Amino acid sequence: MRTMILGAFCAIAMVTSANAAIKEEPVTYTDGETTMKGFVVYDDASQAKRPGIVMVHEWWGITNHIHNEARKFAQQGYTAFIADMYGDAKTADNPKDAGALSGAVMKNPAVMESRFKAARDQLAKQASVNPQQIGAVGYCFGGAVVLNMARAGADLAAVAGFHASLGLNTPAPGPGTVKAKILILNGADDPFVKREQYDALKKDLDAAKADYRIVEYPGAVHAFTNPEATELGTKFNLPLRYDAKADQEAKAEATKFFAADLKK
Q1: 3-class DSSP state of 223
Q2: How is 52-76 classified by DSSP, letter by letter?
Q3: Spatial separation of the C-alpha atoms in residues 19 and 75, rounded to whole Å
Q4: What is the pLDDT along the chain (264 residues), one digit of tens a residue?
C-alpha cells in the first residue's frame, strides 16, 4: 500500500533541482478525525494571487503522475492542491487494494464530499490563491469525484475530468444548481465507461441546464494521460494504456478551458 509514496517524495526532491521556481510543499490537514496529507504546488517567481485547482488522484492514490500534472498546472500560472482522498496519503500498488480504497470513498458520498471540501478549503487559504477563482481536475477515480462535486453544486468555477469514471453517486442536480463549467476528456474506447453512463450523465446535465462538453479520443482507453499506464496494464492484465497523442490533445483542451473559465 505504501510503495508508490517513495516515488512521490522523490518527485518532490526533483522539483527543487530541475525547476527552482516551482515549489511543492506537503500540507497536513484534517477531515473530521481523519488526518489528510496533501501537497500545494505553485510558482514562487510570482507574488500575485492566482486561480487555484484542486487535483484528485487516480485510484492508486497520490503518485508520481499526479505530482507531475500539478507541476504543469503551476507552470501555467495556477496554484494546485493535490487532495488526499484516502487519508494519511495511503496508496495502492495493485488493483485489489486500489479498488478497496476508492470503493470506500465512492460508496459513501458524504465522505467523498467532506474530503473534497477539506482539500478545497486548504487551497482557498493558501497565500498564493485567489479564493474566488477555484476549479478542480480529476483523473479516473478522481474524475468521478470532481464531476460529483460539480453535480452537487460545489463552489467551483470550472471542472475537468481526464479519463473520468462515470459511476456517479450524487443525486441528479436541479436546474441552475451546477455552478461549474464542465469538461470531460475520455478515451472513446475506454471499456470502463459504459455508453449508458454517458447517456445518464448528459440527461442529468441537460435537465440541470449545466454548461458542459464531452470530448472522446478515438483509440484511447483508460488512463491515457499516465505514462506508467501501459506497464500497469500489462502487469495486471487491465485495459490501461498511455496514448501520447490523446494526452497532448486533451491537455491542450484543458489548458484552453481553464484559461477561459478560471482565469477570467
Answers
A1: coil
A2: EEEEE-BTTBS-HHHHHHHHHHHHT
A3: 10
A4: 444 443 444 444 444 444 459 999 999 999 999 999 999 999 999 889 999 999 999 999 999 999 999 999 999 999 999 999 999 999 999 999 999 999 999 999 999 999 999 999 999 999 999 999 999 999 999 999 999 999 999 999 999 999 999 989 999 999 999 999 999 999 999 999 999 999 999 999 999 999 999 999 999 999 999 999 999 999 999 999 999 999 999 999 999 999 999 987
* 183 three-class SS: strand
Separation of alpha carbons 189 and 217, rounded Å: 8
Dist. CA 112–CA 115, nearest whole Å: 5
β-bridge mates for residue 249, sequence order: none
* Phi and psi angles of residue 60, each rounded to the nearest 5 degrees, phi first: -70, -20
CA 8-182-154 angle, 5° bins: 80
Q: Return the CA Rg of the chain.
A: 17
Query: Helix, strand, or coil here: 46?
Result: coil
CA distance 63 to 24: 14
Sheet holding 181-187, edge to edge: 22-31, 34-43, 79-82, 50-56, 129-139, 158-162, 181-187, 212-217
Contact of 179 with 156, CB cutoff 8 Å: yes
d(CA 122, CA 189): 36
Of 178, 146, 151, which is closest to residue 162 (Cα–Cα)? 146
